[in-house]
Amino acid sequence: MSTTAVPEVAVTAVDEGFWTRARKSGAVLLALGVLAAVLFGALATDQQARFTLSETEGGAALEINGTVGAILFGIIAAAAGAALLAGVPKRWFTLVLGVGLVGFVLSFLCWQVSAAPEGRNFMPLVNVVRGTFVLALPLIFGALAGVLCERSGVVNVAIEGQLLMGAFSGALFGSISGSVWVGLVAAAIGGAFISLLLAVFAIRYLVDQVVMGIVLNLLAVGITGFLYERLMQTDAQKYNSAPRFSNWEIPLLKDIPLIGPALFRGNIFLYLGLLLVLVIHIALFRTRWGLRTRSVGEHPTAADTLGVKVLRLRYRNVIMAGLVAGVGGASYTLALYSFTKNMIGGKGFIALAALIFGRWSPTGALLAALFFGFADQLATYLGAIGSSIPSQFLAMLPYLATMLAVAGLVGKVRAPAADGKPYIKG
């Protein structure tokens, strides 16, 4: 039997010219640093900007003169931008960019904290860290749901609907039963119900997955809104007064400065969210299931020839994603709030952005979710200290951060090759 040799094709890197991604980022960062040093430095006051390591004004704190801090951190941001513009080794890009962005944020905070009214010119870092994690929780669960789906080759635009159905189901059944655990299970099932519809229509009937996701989001808004008006509004005590999970304190770890009170005095959703990130990351990159999932998301035909049940695996992973997102929805109604119509408010789409920003990785999705959670918490903090920035701008800050992150910070990313492409077994 003769074999045909396949000629090797030389692949050369595309010449990006002078304006590489790093240099473009450096130019923007340099401009932001100069803006921070000049503008924020001029607007800051000579009052001390205090960053306390507690939940109140008292206790240990990091202090710096507002004007000095705004100028200094602005210069640091500009220096990082200049370094990127001059050209740094590729392996240092993320670190230098991170230093520059942190410098810009700290310059901004020195201005805001020092200019706050007397008695409010401090930032309690414990509250900021805790608030960041609390606000990031639904994003973490939603982004993990996206990882499970899209690594399997199914686009999950229905995260918003899964979160919403989970929040509603948790509130309704938790209220009726009087049990947080019943509410938690019901929330997971509610999210899985939306995922099941996505799986059936996208995998079995080959409906466009993006369109189907949007339709399912509207379906979830319609169902929960209708039942909210018919049940919860008429008798909130019976149908919308679910018990709440209490905080669980972990001995010794809770006493770690700054991190302890924020991370180790949380409720079940905080611990479960961090645990799921670890479990899914290990399962996705260290187990046979993970290898099969990634192969189905990249090249389902090749996976099929090796004996992988492509459609079965996609069904299972999409439904599993709904369970995860449903629990994320319950983090609203079984820990923080009573249910209200459309209470998710676009967080599902931010979770989708976190998935892309995190490059379809559980740990990347976690970091991206924390970034967006910090933006949300920062808007809340600035409103509390009476910032001169208009409240309308503060309200849009999380969404603005989402657009800037996806458009400017991600760079070139590649989704799984078979993502969104139906598989028809030959």
From TrEMBL:
User: What top-level branch of life does the organism fall under?
Assistant: Bacteria
Q: Where in the cell is it found?
A: Cell membrane
Q: How is it placed in the membrane, per its record? A: Multi-pass membrane protein
Q: Keyword Isomerase, does the record have it? A: no
Instruction: Give the chief site where it resides.
Output: membrane
Residue ranges annotated as transmembrane are 27-44, 64-85, 92-116, 128-147, 154-174, 180-203, 210-228, 268-285, 318-337, 349-372, 393-411
Keywords attached to this Swiss-Prot or TrEMBL record, sorted alphabetically, are:
Cell membrane, Membrane, Transmembrane, Transmembrane helix
Instruction: Output a single Gene Ontology CC term carried by this record.
Output: plasma membrane
**GO MF terms held by the record:** transmembrane transporter activity
- The answer, when asked if Membrane is one of the entry's keywords, is yes
Name the chain's protein. Nucleoside ABC transporter membrane protein
Please tell me the species this chain comes from.
Answer: Micromonospora auratinigra
